[in-house]
Amino acid sequence: MTQTQQVTTATEGDVVVALAGNPNSGKTTVFNAITGARQHVGNYPGVTVEKKEGQRRVDDTIVHVVDLPGTYSLTAYSLEEVVARNFVINECPDVVVDVVDASNLERNLYLTTQFIELGVPVVIALNMMDAAEARGRDIDVELLSELLGVPIVPTVASRGGGIEDLVAVMVETARAHRVPGREVRYGRELEEHIAEITQSLEHEEALAGLPARWLAIKLLEDDDEVRDLVAERLDDGGDLLRRVERTRAHLEAVIGDDAEMALADRRYGFINGACAEATTTSRAQRIDWSEAIDNVVTHRVLGIPIFLALMWGMFEMVFRLGAPPMRWLESAFGWLAAHLAFWLPDGPLQSLLVDGVIGGVGGVLIFVPQILLLFLAISLLEDSGYMSRAAFVVDRAMHYVGLHGKSFIPMLIGFGCTVPAIMATRTLESRRDRLTTMLVAPLMSCGARLPVYVLLAGAFFPPYLAGKVIFGIYLLGVLLAALMARVFRSTLLKGPMAPFVMELPPYRMPTLPGTLLHMWERGWCYVRKAGTVILAASVVMWALLSWPEPPAHAPADGLPAIAHTAAGHIGRGLEPVLRPLGFNWKVGISLVAGLAAKEVVVATLATTYSLEESAEGSTAALTEALRADPTFSPLVAIALMAFILIYPPCIAAMAVLWRESGSSKCLAIAVAYTTSLAWLVSFIIYQGGRLLGWG
Ligand code: GDP
Ligand code: MG
């Protein structure tokens, strides 16, 4: 299942099918129906967008199916779109199967027009015919097929309906290399300029194999990737681009709108025309439930409270239902550790397995129930269609910090865990938005930091205040995230906001298998990706905390054994930097350990205060020890909580940030800004507090 084969392993005579479609059109369902879910998952070469591949045998032919990322369009605004179109252009699949949601025909056909424009063989899988029917929409499939110049096979993928026909038609289209029989026409004014640019491009050797008309249209749309390609490959690329620029300016003056908008309008015109002709809507079923629900949940006034209530309900559900299995897992790992400690002789191996591996990996795995529940809730909200409404509701507020409503979903996930939060940024259209969201997502305080807050707030504040202090820390994170997003959007990641429609797909009753599949895909990523990194980090941390071994006799300096280990030296070395924040060297060690995983901060503090860990009363004992330490105070506790909130997230999160951004510069920026911001904020809190006499 987890083979990471990179290239389609097709040989002569095989057929390669690329499966494309809007998100939620039923692509995955069609993929599974065609291939019987025999798939391997890898990444597209060069980028970390997941690539699913499966096979199907038809007579003597092996049909390879590649699931392209779900997209609404093929512009260069989002990574998914670039990946999808580059696959179609560079890998030349024998046929593109475009999965179209029949109950949302007009919007889905927009992507179809782009494939038609590319001039590649296309077959439309007109999916969700049942939903279209339920909404009272009657589609004349034959006529629509004729109007679009593309074969259409109606399907109900969730019940396997039409899949065999689809397989037959797609293989036939591939073998005959049948390209679309129509073209989207853009009207006299635009066509004149398209023709002119097409002509200049047609005879260029350097662009052979790329459809010239498509390139011309993309140039008029000012598509970054195509512009770079032309500049790079053509000797006089600069000349041509300047001419295109003049044409764009001219068009804007004539049409009063930029060329991109004008082209999009024409495509929609083409689609609307085709749909008006080939579909009828029966009067009886005109009540539009989607619209009725939308009137309430995206209401200007009611929208926000409804949204907040749902979020609150979601977190309640996750934490309440997640707590018991989390306790079971905790005791299971405790049992395992105790037994290993009993059966293995004392020594490094026992210590490595018990303290290092079980302590580290177990500490992460116990969060799996909560993570799965969180993803279950998110999958439900997404599959039903509510998530896009939530993004719509917060969109306006997000614009203040230079982001879109869509960035909000990854940030929300960040309250659970930063790793999936960073992965969820894949849904963002523009790379700038994506990077900004990734950079600030760690400021959403993740679940692993909570135990530290609970310890510190509990130790230094009366019960009635402790909860409010913790809430204040969460709020500080949100405010800093907003601030930093603004800073990044107006400096390093400056640029216009990518224009896009806030999609409001129709509501749909989520199906159990679909929801479970989505939950599982994401949960497994957490276990697999975080698990491997955490394992390595735990072993490294364990080694740092175990070596060099302390002198055999009681050390004369009165320091606990841990002070002599490598981690101890690091902690003591950091003391001069941390002293202005009010932190002692013991805190320094815990902060270093926290880089591996925030879960280990409390355990490391307990070790540095020479307490027996894993005892039931260890939290109480640690609380006492902290209160008795003269260098600690409520002020130091707040400064420390702020520091732990802001300073670099765990190794797993950093590794994922690196992989997903594909840039070590981005990782370096993340580490640098979180470290300095943490220091600065803690410094202000501690020194400011002392000035006010709270020290
Ligand atoms: P993807 O995002 O395009 O991969 O979409 P999925 O395959 O995950 O499908 C989204 C939802 O639509 C799932 O809950 C499917 O069970 C459901 N679905 C898929 N095909 C059909 C269909 O033909 N009819 C209906 N009513 N639901 C479908
Ligand atoms: Mg899918």
How are the SSEs placed, and which strands pair?
Blueprint: E1 15-21, H1 27-35, E2 39-43, E3 50-58, E4 61-67, H2 79-90, E5 95-101, H3 105-118, E6 122-127, H4 129-134, E7 137-139, H5 141-148, E8 152-154, H6 163-176, H7 187-202, H8 212-220, H9 224-233, H10 237-255, H11 259-278, E9 279-281, H12 289-297, H13 303-343, H14 348-365, H15 368-384, H16 386-399, H17 408-414, H18 418-424, H19 431-440, H20 450-460, H21 463-490, H22 512-546, H23 566-578, H24 585-596, H25 600-608, H26 618-628, H27 634-646, H28 651-661, H29 664-691
Parallel strand pairs: 1-4, 1-5, 5-6, 6-8
Antiparallel strand pairs: 2-3, 3-4, 7-9
The structure holds guanosine-5'-diphosphate (GDP) and magnesium ion.
The site of guanosine-5'-diphosphate has 20 residues, from helix 1 and helix 4.
Poorly predicted segments: 1-7, 612-617
Structural class based on helices, strands and sheet pairing = alpha/beta
**Helix run count:** 29
Q: Care to count the β-strands?
A: 9
The quaternary organization reads as single chain
Largest sheet: 7 strands, mixed
How many structural units, i.e. domains? 3
Strand order of the largest sheet: 2-3-4-1-5-6-8
Gyration radius, in Å: 29 Å
Mean pLDDT across residues: 83
Percentage beta strand: 5-15%
Roughly what percent helix? 55-70%
